[in-house]
Amino acid sequence: MIARLLGIAALVAGVAAFPAVAGAYPVKLLQEILIWGIFAMSLDLLMGYAGMVSFGHSAFFGIGAYVAAFALKQTPHLLSALVLPALVTAVAALIIGFCSIRTSGVYFIMLTLAFSQMFFAYAFQAAWLGAEDGVFGVPRPRLLGLDLANPTAFHLYLVALAGLAVLVLWRIVGSPFGHVLRGIHENEGRMEAVGYAVQRYKLVAFVTAGTVGGMAGALYTQLNLTISPDAFYWTTSGEALLMVIIGGTGTLWGSLLGAAAFILLQSLVSSYTERWMLILGLTFILFVLFAPGGMVGALRGRVGRRA
Amino acid sequence: MFIPDFFAQALNGLSYGVLLFLLSVGLTLIFGMLDVINLAHGSFYMLGAYAGLATLAVTGNFWLAVLAAPLAVGLIGALMERVCLRSLYRRSPLDQVLLTFGFIYLFEDVVKWIWGGKIRSIPPPEVFSGSVSFFGATVPSYRLFMIVFGLAMAMVLWLLIERTRLGAIIRAGVFDAEMSAGMGINIDRVFTGVFAFGAALGGLSGVIAGPIQSASPPMGAGILIPALIVVVVGGLGSLKGSLVGSLIIGQAETFGKAWLPGSSMVIIYVVMALVVLFRPQGLFGRALK
User: Number of CB pairs < 8 Å for A and B?
Assistant: First the structure.
């Protein structure tokens, strides 16, 4: 237990101090890993724990990103950077969730996919959202007198928020609520028979995952200072899904690991060859076929055999 | 002025709807049989267009391309089912859906590798390169050919599934695969056959779409969403639903483009949302459990 805590502390310290030892590009990669890690974890809460495989998680990423972009342009305040995006995505997740949780399996996949594409279609054509080009020149927020335009401050802000997301999701997953979600995943009918309001639990899970996903989107805007309709496109959902599967479904750490593997692999592979998509597709297919537990599952399997 | 324009739009919508039908019917058949929503179905459409392009480059004959594309894509589908999907039947259907998702990336990049990322046009056959005008509306004759061809295919498919022995086997498999196996049907072969057949229909729709949509690697991912919407609107696993859904979505998209150019892309989602709200199982779908 103590060894584990020390390990986590060392990891956090290492991530926080990374800019002191590395150049701009590796730091940018690490920051992307943090943001995508948050996004992948939020999706994992939905698919790994509640058993709801969503292909439309990009809807929340995009909403969070766009709301943050517009609000920050109005006033670079903490409210615009985090609070407003979270509120708006929560409402959107409530509406989309209400319409889609009545279905399950492939119907749920198709509905969530279609909803996210609807946002893409709208953002792509709406002039007030900047249409195809999206929003440019978003300022970074000021936080308690601290100007996050400063790269070090911004990095620490990201690390702190990613840590917070891990902590919150970890607590949720371990709570009675999280156990009910796992019960629903295992056997929905039984949970209903036992007396749980299954639909309500699913809706709360959907809204929670959507809100955290929206926060990831808001942070993404603050990292890149621009956002385009691609944030809504289904490939955004798809990439998060790949991260979760490659890392290991139903393990929050796995999603972080998957995000790191995905982004590092992407930057490595695309510097050698243009065939990134091919390698990505193959990797994914091989994982689904031969390592359904993802990287975490594979590691655990080996550790188990040794012991 | 208004009437001819309306008429031309309706015909355009019909030809697009027929195209969606050819694509979504494969999707719905595969789902009915294997319980898998094949996310790589749009890729079959793209592969069909490129197989047609390759045949055209070698033979110069459009009709040979129309014949070769479904055969090639059907073969790819059969391989995909035999080599990959088959080993996942014991796991949850979601694993299979995820697998088909991986194939989207694979197929798109392989096509980009071979043919490059440029948009390629497929010329319509000589006979249908002109246009026809009636009731004051001018319509490319190729679109009329698409409509006739698509409706004929719908007829053939209906006869095949409702009136032949093979169709009876497929219907039995859709109804209860395990029981059909117990009755002495080689269900393994039927699964492969249905997947290959669905893939071939996807390939066919790709090459038929070539002269009006041209071919590019991302076209598969692009058409997947409308095809899924058709299936949601019509009802999963229903042939009739796939036809009616295609015609509705085809018209909605075409009239949206003409009348609401600023928000045309959203129309089909609005249609879908309305259907889902009032009839979650789709117009012709079986009631959800």
Answer: 112
